[in-house]
């Protein structure tokens, strides 16, 4: 039985999204148990409205406070000690849950997770990783997406190790290819940090491809792409904005032009496939890697479908022993490093 703790109060919509989204996953996976963390009366009412197929899959865990999207990290850490976010993470630490999913404040979630769960041995920095859609019909896993603005070459190696383990666990690829984001594919390109990281990745046990550029994310050139959090977060926001703009412009053109409306009827199957391909809801659920526990971050504005995708990704990480894969990969990397020294 896989057990997942849900921060029911997090995100822009809270219970209106987290409960129906979780129920979707519960109905698909009867072997999974959910700890619904938050305000008990409100959770009970939302669960009743959602009408789960099997009520026994759910356990309500009381938490009297809520970390808002605007709360500073200090408030989440020091003042709101009975928040739904903190209690959900603590369920993982205490062994009551195998994973935690929250769509709440990203900074607070990262800080609380690191404070409560601590870091895995051999990992210095946590990283945020998620899959972004590519033209091959799958996803390219990119990290870090904002947890670390400044990174050393060694940190980028750690990201490669953790990202590779994540893809092995979630996508079931035995030897994922790993690239490092750069301004060109040539070895001479990039700053000293990226060049040093490329050398470390090349001498590691990872299936290192080499330097990749921004468009390689969409091409699916590699399974994993590593970068520092400043670059990664900028790339993520640009992709989200571009996808929304493209879909918005297509819809607007269909409304404005009668010929476009006629063409739309003929091309509707193609448009539906494009919309699905660009729908970032399908890729919702970023893993907070490097912790002594499985924590997934859903987008704060996620709807039911997107939140369900995040919960399902967390479940898949647990089922595929993500933590064990990361630990084994770190140990292997350290052994190779010791041999080279």
Automatic annotation (TrEMBL):
This protein's record includes keyword Cell membrane: no
Coiled coil: none
The keyword Protease appears for this protein: no
Gene Ontology cellular component annotations, sorted alphabetically: cytoplasm
GO molecular function, one term: phosphate:acyl-[acyl carrier protein] acyltransferase activity
Domain of life: Bacteria
Gene Ontology biological process terms, A to Z: fatty acid biosynthetic process; phospholipid biosynthetic process
Substrates-to-products reaction catalysed: a fatty acyl-[ACP] + phosphate = an acyl phosphate + holo-[ACP]
InterPro entries cross-referenced by the UniProt entry: FA_synthesis, Phospholipid_synth_PlsX-like
Xref: NCBIfam families: plsX
Purpose: Catalyzes the reversible formation of acyl-phosphate (acyl-PO(4)) from acyl-[acyl-carrier-protein] (acyl-ACP). This enzyme utilizes acyl-ACP as fatty acyl donor, but not acyl-CoA.
Protein's UniProt name: Phosphate acyltransferase
Organism: Oligella urethralis DNF00040
Phylogenetic classification of the source organism: Bacteria, Pseudomonadati, Pseudomonadota, Betaproteobacteria, Burkholderiales
């Amino acid at each position: 039985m896989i057990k997942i703790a849900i921060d029911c109060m997090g995100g822009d919509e809270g219970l209106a999204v987290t409960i129906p989204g979780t129920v979707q996953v519960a109905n698909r996976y009867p072997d999974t148990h959910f700890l619904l963390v938050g305000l008990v009366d409100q959770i009970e009412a939302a669960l009743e409205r959602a009408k789960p197929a099997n009520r026994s899959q759910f356990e309500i865990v009381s938490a009297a406070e809520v970390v808002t999207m605007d709360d500073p990290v200090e408030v989440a850490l020091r003042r709101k000690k009975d928040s739904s976010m903190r209690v959900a993470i603590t369920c993982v630490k205490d062994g009551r849950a195998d994973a935690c999913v929250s769509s709440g404040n990203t900074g607070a979630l990262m800080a609380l997770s690191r404070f409560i769960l601590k870091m895995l041995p051999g990992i210095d920095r946590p990283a945020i990783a998620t899959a972004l859609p590519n033209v091959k019909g799958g996803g390219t896993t990119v990290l870090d997406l904002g947890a670390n603005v400044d990174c050393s070459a060694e940190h980028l190696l750690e990201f490669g190790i953790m990202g590779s383990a994540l893809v092995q666990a979630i996508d079931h690829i035995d030897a994922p290819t790993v690239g490092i984001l750069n301004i060109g594919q040539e070895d001479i390109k990039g700053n000293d940090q990226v060049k040093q990281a490329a050398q470390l990745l090349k001498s590691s046990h990872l299936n290192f491809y080499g330097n990749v550029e921004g468009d390689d994310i969409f091409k699916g050139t590699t399974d994993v792409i590593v970068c520092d959090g400043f670059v990664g977060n900028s790339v993520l926001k640009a992709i989200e904005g571009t996808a929304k703009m493209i879909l918005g412009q297509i819809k607007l053109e269909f409304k404005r032009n009668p010929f476009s409306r006629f063409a739309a009827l003929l091309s509707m199957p193609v448009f539906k496939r494009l919309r699905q391909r660009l729908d970032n809801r399908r890729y919702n659920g970023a893993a907070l890697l490097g912790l002594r526990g499985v924590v997934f971050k859903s987008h704060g504005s996620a709807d039911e479908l997107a939140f369900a995708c995040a919960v399902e990704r967390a479940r898949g990480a647990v089922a595929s022993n993500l933590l064990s894969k990361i630990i084994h990969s770190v140990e292997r990397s350290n052994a190779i490093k010791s041999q080279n020294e």
